[in-house]
Every structure is written in structure tokens, then in C-alpha cells.
Amino acid sequence: MVLLWSEEDGCYVVTLPGWQNARTHGATLEEATRNGREVLNLLIEAARKNGEAIPAPERRYSGNLRLRLPISMHARLARDAEREGVSLNQWIVSKLAS
After folding, report:
1. Sorting pLDDT into bands at 50, 70 and 90, what band is 6?
2. CA dihedral in degrees (57, 59, 9, 24; nearest 10)?
3. Does a structural domain hold residue 7?
4. Which of 17, 30, 58, 93 has an alpha carbon within 20 to 30 A of 2's alpha carbon?
5. pTM for the predicted model, two decimal places
6. Residues forming a β-bridge with 23
7. Are 31 and 66 part of one and the same domain?
């Protein structure tokens, strides 16, 4: 379940990605969450009734990663990034991507 504020609609919008992005909304966080759970329960009930598969929950990733590494490696990476004129994060991501 993804919950976001919609400035355009002036309400909280709930999206259920595993269910073809089914959506509902609410004026408050509580209302939107309650409506989202209600829609999800109805979708699960309908899937079971019709013998359809229930989608597995999607794993969500934040894009943040805490990493411990030796001080000497951190220093070397930081120097390499500085030499290339990019942030340490950009440098590490480019190295992982290649």
C-alpha cells in the first residue's frame, strides 16, 4: 500500500500496486488508510471467491544503504571521487553499475 498526499486533489491517495494500482483516497491519513485496507480486503475476498491468485506483497527499497568498510577503503574511494569531480555516492554507484 502506497500512501501519498495529492496537492491537486487535496486529499491522501492510497495506491495498491499489487492489485493493478487500485486506488482510493481520504481526507485524513486515518481515513485514507482505513479506506485502503477496506479496498484491499474486498479485493482479496473477490480473488478468493473467484479462485484467482492473490498477489504477493511487493518488496520496496528505499535506495539507502548503510555500509561499513575499512577506513583505508573509504579514504581511497573519497579521493577517487574527488579526482573525478563527483560525490562519493555517485562514484560508488557508478562503480557498482559497471
Report:
1. confident
2. 0
3. yes
4. 93
5. 0.56
6. 15
7. no
For the ranges 14-18, 28-32, 49-53, the lowest mean pLDDT is seen at 14-18
66 in the same domain as 29 = no
The count of residues in the chain is: 98
SS3 54: coil
Range of the domain at 12: 2-49
* Pairwise CA distance, residues 82 & 98, whole Å: 19
Residue 9 in grid coordinates: 486533489
Q: Are strands 2-6 and 22-26 parallel, antiparallel or unpaired?
A: unpaired
CA distance 38 to 57: 16
C-alpha cell at 26: 481520504
pLDDT digits (tens, 9 = 90+) for 37-80: 999 999 999 999 999 988 887 777 778 888 899 999 999 999 99
